[in-house]
Amino acid sequence: MTGLRWGLIGASDIASTRIIPALRRVGQEPLAVLSSSAERGARFAVENDVSLSYTSLDAMLDRHDIDAVYISTTNELHAEQAVAAAMAGKHVLCEKPLAMSIHDAQKILSACDGAGVVLAVNHHLPAAGTHRKMRELIAQGAVGKPLAVRVFHAVKLPDRLAGWRLQNPERGGGVILDITSHDAAAVQALLGARALEVAAISCSQGLWAAAVEDAVVSAMRFPEDVLVQTHDAFTVGYAGTGLEVHGTEGSIIARGVMTQDPVGSLHLRDANGEREIGPSDRDDLYDVTLSAFAEAVRGQAAPIVDGQAGLQALAVALAAKESAQAGRTVAVDALLTGQLPHSG
User: Fold this and answer.
1) CATH number for region 125-283+315-336
2) H helices then E strands: how many in the chain?
């Protein structure tokens, strides 16, 4: 196989602006697109030079020349589509969050494992050169024992993306599933561990009368009592993003690194003062993700964020939602094992 051939499940903004250009840069082919609207699918295919357009998932999955699918439909559709793709023998790259529930996410993992296909989740941040450099520094002991992480991920939601993300909780709208899940994936990768418990407060701050939360502050505890705090929002236009890792021997201060673009700066502060540390590279995050996915299909590497890591990121986001609704700290394992009581 020289280059993966893809079916795009969802004629989405991210498929058009990020995934298709990256596929072509890394020598892979977007062969077909699926949309519930024949008109929209046909228009998307023409605008993005994709050969085939479908409204039937079964018909697209029946093609023997499609090796993998990229799922970027609304969140409530992910599980059914990912399971169908796995059963058809297609490798799966799914947009975050992996699913709307732990049960559905576990169904996806089970289906992909049973079919022997690769499953990855498109949490883009761990693919960034800045994040890979931070992981390297932490592994080398540059900050000593990690004690705390602070994430600044409050941004302004672009108007073109504001529809269901603000008005449709049944589709998984809201800032927690959209952004807090990304934070979780990034921090998990940095610390090499998963969150144990989450406490969160959320609200709706925007002028758009949202039906879901558009701002949230979360506190998380990781193993060895590493504390993580996050601020995520759709309402903040000028703060910029950032991430800090503080340890017993130093701190990493990263700015502009919680984005889809290969930008941002890293500084290391320790007993020797403060100095800028260059990232590993400035490669496009989606190029890195898709190249790693192809290597995983060949059995030569692991995806940047595999299905299990995607499940853990989803669990953190769902724990944050539960905490904000119930007004209490939520144990992540209680979600993963189905032992969490209903909010009250």
Assistant:
1) 3.30.360.10
2) 13, 15
Buried/exposed code over 218-250 (b: 16+ C-beta within 10 A; e: otherwise): bbbbbeeebebbbbbbbbbeeeebbbbbbbeeb
Nearest to 249, CA basis, from 269, 278, 277: 269
Q: In this structure, which long-range contacts are made by residues 38-45, counting pairs with CB atoms below 8 Å and at least 24 apart in sequence?
A: 40/11, 41/11, 44/11, 44/15, 44/16
CATH, domain range 5-123+287-305:
3.40.50.720
Query: Does 343 have pLDDT greater than 60?
Result: no
Domain ranges for the chain: 5-123+287-305, 125-283+315-336
**Full-prediction pTM beyond 0.90?**
yes
Residue identified by tokens 């921090």 is: 187
Q: Please write the tens of the pLDDT for every residue from 252-291.
A: 999 999 999 999 999 999 999 999 999 989 999 999 999 9
